[in-house]
Design a protein that fits this description.
The structure holds two protein chains of two kinds.
Chain A lengths: L1 H21 L8 H22 L4 H24 L10 H22 L13 H23 L6 H14 L2 H12 L6 H14 L6 H13 L4 H13 L3 H13 L7 H16 L18 H8 L4 H20 L4 H13 L3 H15 L8 H12 L2
Helix pairs in contact in A: 1-4, 2-3, 5-6, 5-14, 6-7, 7-8, 8-9, 9-10, 10-11, 11-12, 13-15, 14-15, 15-16, 16-17
Chain B lengths: L1 H29 L2 H30 L6 H6 L6 H7 L4 H22 L5 H25 L23 H30 L4 H32 L10 H26 L3 H23 L6 H6 L1 H25 L14 H33 L7 H21 L10 H26 L4 H24 L7 H10 L2 H25 L2 E7 L4 E4 L2 E12 L4 E11 L2 E6 L2 E5 L4 E5 L1 E4 L3 E8 L4 H5 L3 E9 L2 H19 L23
Helix pairs in contact in B: 1-2, 1-6, 2-4, 2-5, 2-6, 5-6, 5-7, 6-7, 6-12, 7-8, 7-9, 7-10, 8-9, 8-20, 9-10, 9-13, 10-12, 13-14, 14-16, 15-16, 16-18, 18-20
The chains are: A mainly alpha, B alpha+beta.
């Protein structure tokens, strides 16, 4: 459809360039015709003005004299510049232009355009908003349950709540939820790195002292925590220590042998720093870096919560992702996440189906794409 | 899908602009009619594709398509529909697209309506117009793509700027741009004339409607902007000499000079060099204005340095177009045939002085606007050049201009009869002096400059009316005869009278509202009385009210004069939760005599607030509405002139003629 319209527009553009060829026989207005015509009109106008008494006889005569002078001047100048015989040839440049112009436009568009991104009117996204509202209701229920728990509520519950808030864009609430766990004995490195992220997001992406403290604590508990390392690097970058920020990310990236999803975020950030600081870029299979919908970690966190709510909660997120993938079936990482989510939900058939989609998409990718073995392993484990 | 169609259409528009910038002008120099004709079709093609792009962007704003980054950043699903539409040109990218659309509209306008223009001139003009299009389309596509996509889209947009939710501002940029960009076609005509090496009355006739159309739009745009600032900003002023205002005012000043200079070229075959130079400079100032506003230079020179890509691109465009056209001018203008001669006292000389004063005034504004930027760039000091500088430098120049404006229309072309002139204006001058003295007697007090200004305004008004009366021989011949003469007068002549009278009216408004403004700022608890300009105002208290997308503190002010209730005003301080910002909604009692202007704010300190106190700002601005009325008169005058399709010849006076025949020449 869209390509059909592009073709129509292109044809229209070509016709705008070529149309003069059809007009080649019609005459054109030359200066030799146009100027005397104006002067003759002026002469008539003066006659009329004299008749109506707008100007006096004297003025009229003077003005007429003036115009006569102009006519003489116009004739003289057109004599001096012998009008070149009107030539109508030279069709080839027009045809070349008619070919080059659409090529140029198409060339530009193919590099810069996003023909596959659909339009989505706000009114047509009621379901998405409803789902979002559902999540909000579920989050509220979860919070009430956790707060009413005399034992303070399980840490996993608070973590899930924090992550949910984070995804809903309520960073301030997320910080509160993570802080509950951070004060407990069972706080892990992930607790602190998530807290750090929430604090940073709540402060417009700035690693403020509170976030820095959480990062330090997270790295103390687990020096290899990739999220904490990432925010540590962000902190360095804010202190304009780009080189250190870069080195930190690269060294952490090099510790991994196999592909892990966070690598793409790392690679994107490394390359951003590299572009600004003139450092070598790293090469990873690139893909969309920030996707909504549940990540493996979210689902894993949810799976630790033994509630009826939990399953419903996950399902709402998973169905959102599945819905989106229907519209955008080319999203490889989306399928991998969906498959992972179904695996956690122990819906084996659906997981296999999703992995198969991912496998199909991977065929177009380079042979050394690290996601290939990941999908293969997963399918083997699922017995698919 | 629509955004992508818009994006692709924009790319096609650029491609067509490239064709249009090369083929027609080559055709004009080689005498190839087919290539020349391609100017018309490509110009139409451009406007078609840019319109598609603009419509696509507008569609995205209307349906709140948050897959378009520009919509995410500049709209919100809760915005009222009108402001969603206006959001299309609210952002940097959108406003540039509008800029380009207007550029294309003017090009297509010449292609369509310029049937009396010779093909060669038209081809050259449209090619030059296409050069500008290429510059701006590539700027848009390469640095500020309005169709950048976000996927997956966020749930809602980020912007609900309440200040921008105002009718005045919704209409302001389009009108201002129509003026700004309208001068582009005049520029293109000028550059084409330089390339062709010929400027004559016919050329001036072809350019006239375009200059007028641009001037009218710019006038309306500036007036509307000023009106908006007055009603919406809550500061009670209508002009702040703010750089953003100045950059639109400078093309207006020079455009006004251009308008008058082009009349001389059309009627008397003179001032050719002036007209061309003014056409080039007027559009250059429009470009400079676009650059200053769009590069972020105004926020800070430093901000410009941080993200210089856009700024540098426009700076490059600016250098090429202004530098190139001025170089061409320097090279070709001296070859222009000399025009009609005139004496030191003549209509031509009067208009020359007008040109000089307007150019000097423009230079003053330019200096005051650029000096802080240059100083900041060189020394890092931040200063602001404010009203004191502009008032001291600009107002005397305008007063001199007004004196000449009064004289000008009485002068005849080529040589004027000094004795007859003085004879005719003596009475008016005396009348103006009496008016100024009467004002001094009645108002007892006020700055001397204000009285000089009153004198000037009265002189201009009386002189303009007197000149019109002379033209139709009012009271000299029977009234019916005068009416017949008035009907027969060319509309351009009525246009001049209305526009010049408009300036006088505008001046009255400016003088009244600046020299005799009264202002009171009080911390008021309910029950407080404030006295201003003969009004007793009682603050009855404030309450919270809920609007469609805001919460407001609404004050109630009872206005009494001589104990009688005149009106009740409800100024508001609104808070928009989504945008987290506040606006002032002033309440104004507006009459021809003056505006009673009130606004309310919560005091800065909470302690004061707890005591139930509010900050009230009450102003009385006499005659302020005359400013808008005068502006409307200017626009009407311009429209009258635009509707005049006549040709113009300036009939020179013969050296010796009977004094009784003292009708100014048309």
């Amino acid at each position: 459809m869209i390509w059909g319209i592009f073709v129509l527009l292109t044809l229209l553009a070509i016709s705008f360039v070529l149309y003069p060829l059809l007009l080649s026989r019609s005459s054109i207005l030359t200066r030799r015709d146009a100027v005397p015509a104006i002067l003759a009109d002026q002469m008539q106008e003066i006659e009329r003005d004299m008749e109506r008494g707008l100007i006096s006889e004297h003025e009229g005569q003077a003005a007429k004299l003036e115009i006569k002078k102009r006519i003489v001047a116009a004739v003289r100048s057109s004599e001096r510049k012998v009008a070149s015989a009107a030539c109508t040839g030279g069709k080839i440049p027009l045809v070349i232009a008619a070919v080059l112009a659409p090529l140029l436009a198409t060339g530009y568009y193919l590099t810069m355009g996003s023909p596959n991104v659909p339009s989505m009117a706000f009114a047509g996204r009621a379901d998405e908003r409803a789902q979002n509202d559902d999540v909000a209701i579920l989050a509220n229920q979860l919070r009430e349950r956790l707060e009413s728990d005399p034992a303070g509520g399980p840490s996993e519950g608070w973590m899930l709540l924090g992550q949910t808030y984070q995804r809903m864009g309520r960073a301030g609430d997320a910080v509160e939820a993570f802080e509950v766990v951070a004060k407990r004995e069972d706080a892990t490195s992930a607790t602190f790195s998530m807290l750090a992220e929430a604090v940073a997001v709540a402060n417009d992406g700035l690693v403020v002292p509170q976030a820095k403290m959480a990062i330090d604590r997270a790295l103390e508990l687990d020096a290899s925590n990739p999220a904490a390392t990432y925010f540590e690097s962000l902190y360095l970058l804010q202190r304009e220590e780009a080189r250190q920020a870069y080195d930190l990310l690269v060294s952490r990236l090099n510790q991994e042998d196999a592909y892990v999803p966070w690598m793409e975020t790392y690679a994107a950030q490394i390359n951003r720093i590299a572009a600004a600081a003139d450092l070598p870029v790293v090469d990873l299979p690139s893909g969309p870096t920030s996707q909504p919908g549940p990540s493996a970690a979210d689902v894993a966190a949810a799976s630790e919560l033994s509630d009826a709510d939990r399953a419903e909660f996950i399902r709402s997120m998973v169905s959102r992702l599945a819905e989106r993938l229907k519209d955008d079936p080319e999203d490889l990482d989306g399928w991998m996440r969906l498959a992972n989510a179904y695996t956690v939900l122990q819906e084996q058939d659906r997981a296999i189906e999703a992995y198969r989609k991912a496998e199909a998409l991977l065929k177009q990718r380079p042979a050394d794409d690290p996601r290939r073995p990941a999908v293969r392993d997963a399918l083997e484990q699922l017995g698919g | 899908m629509f955004p992508e169609i818009g994006h692709f259409a924009l790319a096609l528009a650029l491609a067509l602009a490239l064709v249009q910038s090369v083929l027609p002008i080559t055709g004009a120099s080689r005498g190839n009619t087919v290539w020349m004709k391609s100017a018309q079709t490509t110009a139409l093609g451009q406007v078609v594709f840019v319109t598609i792009a603009f419509t696509a962007l507008m569609q995205a704003f209307i349906v709140s398509d948050f897959t378009v980054r520009n919509v995410v950043e500049n709209s919100h699903s809760l915005k009222p529909m009108l402001y969603k539409v206006a959001g299309t040109w609210g952002s940097h990218e959108g406003s540039l697209l509008l800029w380009i659309l207007i550029l294309a509209v003017f090009g297509a306008g010449v292609a369509t309506f310029g049937s009396n223009i010779p093909a060669e001139t038209k081809a050259r003009t449209l090619s030059v117009q296409a050069w500008i299009s290429v510059g701006f389309l590539s700027f848009l596509l390469l640095t500020s793509n309005p169709f950048e996509r976000v996927f997956p889209p966020p749930l809602d947009g980020n912007d609900l700027n309440p200040l921008l939710q105002d009718m005045g501002l919704a209409l302001h940029p389009p009108l201002l741009y129509f003026g700004y960009v309208g001068f582009s076609i005049v520029f293109s005509f000028a550059v084409a004339a330089l390339l062709e090496g010929r400027v004559d009355p016919a050329w001036a006739r072809w350019v006239r409607p375009w200059t007028l159309a641009a001037w009218i739009s710019l006038t309306a745009g500036i007036a509307l902007g000023s009106w908006w600032a007055y009603y919406e900003l809550g500061w009670g002023g209508w002009w702040f000499w703010d750089p953003v205002e100045n950059v639109s005012f400078m093309p207006w000043l020079l455009g006004t000079a251009l308008l008058h200079s082009a009349i001389v070229t059309e009627k008397r075959d003179a001032f050719k060099s002036w007209t061309i130079l003014l056409a080039i400079l007027t559009f250059s100032l429009s470009l400079l204005g676009t650059f200053i506003v769009r590069s972020g230079l105004l926020t800070s020179v430093h901000a410009f340095a941080v993200d210089p890509e856009r700024g540098l691109y426009i700076l490059g465009l600016l250098t090429v177009s202004i530098g190139g056209s001025l170089a061409l001018y320097a090279w070709r203008a001296p070859d222009m045939e000399p025009g009609g001669l005139f004496r030191p006292i003549s209509r031509e000389a009067g208009l020359l002085v007008n040109n000089l004063i307007l150019a000097a005034a423009t230079g003053t504004v330019l200096f005051g606007t650029l000096y802080p930027l240059i100083l900041e760039a060189v020394t890092g000091d931040k200063i602001s050049v404010g009203p004191p500088f502009f008032n001291a430098a600009f107002i005397p120049m305008m007063l001199a201009l007004v004196v000449f404006m009064g004289f000008g229309p009485f002068l005849s072309w080529k040589r004027a009869d000094v004795a007859g002139l003085l004879d005719r204006v003596r009475f008016i001058a005396a009348l103006a002096l009496i008016a100024a003295l009467a004002a001094w007697y009645l108002l007892n007090g006020g700055p001397i400059m204000a009285y000089l200004a009153i004198l000037g305004a009265a002189w201009l008004l009386f002189a303009t009316l007197r000149e019109w009366a002379l033209r139709i021989r009012l009271f000299e011949v029977p009234l019916a005869e005068s009416m017949r003469r008035a009907r027969n007068l060319p509309r351009a002549s009525h246009g001049m009278t209305v526009a010049h009278a408009g300036v006088a009216v505008l001046m009255m408004g400016m003088i009244g509202s600046s020299a005799w403004k009264s202002e009171e700022i009080v911390f008021a608890a309910p029950g407080t009385d404030v006295e201003i300009a003969g009004f007793d105002i009682t603050f009855e208290g404030a309450e919270k009210v809920q609007g469609p997308n805001y919460i407001a503190d609404r004050g109630t002010l009872e206005v009494r004069r001589n104990g009688e209730l005149v009106t009740t005003l409800f100024p508001e301080r609104r808070y928009y939760p989504v945008a987290e910002s506040q606006t002032t909604e002033s309440a104004i009692r507006s009459t021809l005599a003056g505006d009673l202007y009130t606004s309310i704010a919560t005091p800065a300190s909470d302690q004061v607030n707890n005591a139930g106190s509010w900050t009230l700002r009450i102003l009385y601005e006499p005659l302020v509405n005359l400013i808008w009325i005068g502006s409307i008169l200017l626009v009407i005058g311009g429209c009258l002139s635009l509707s005049d399709r006549r040709l113009r010849v300036g009939a020179p006076r013969r050296a010796k003629r009977p004094a009784s025949d003292a009708v100014p020449a048309e």
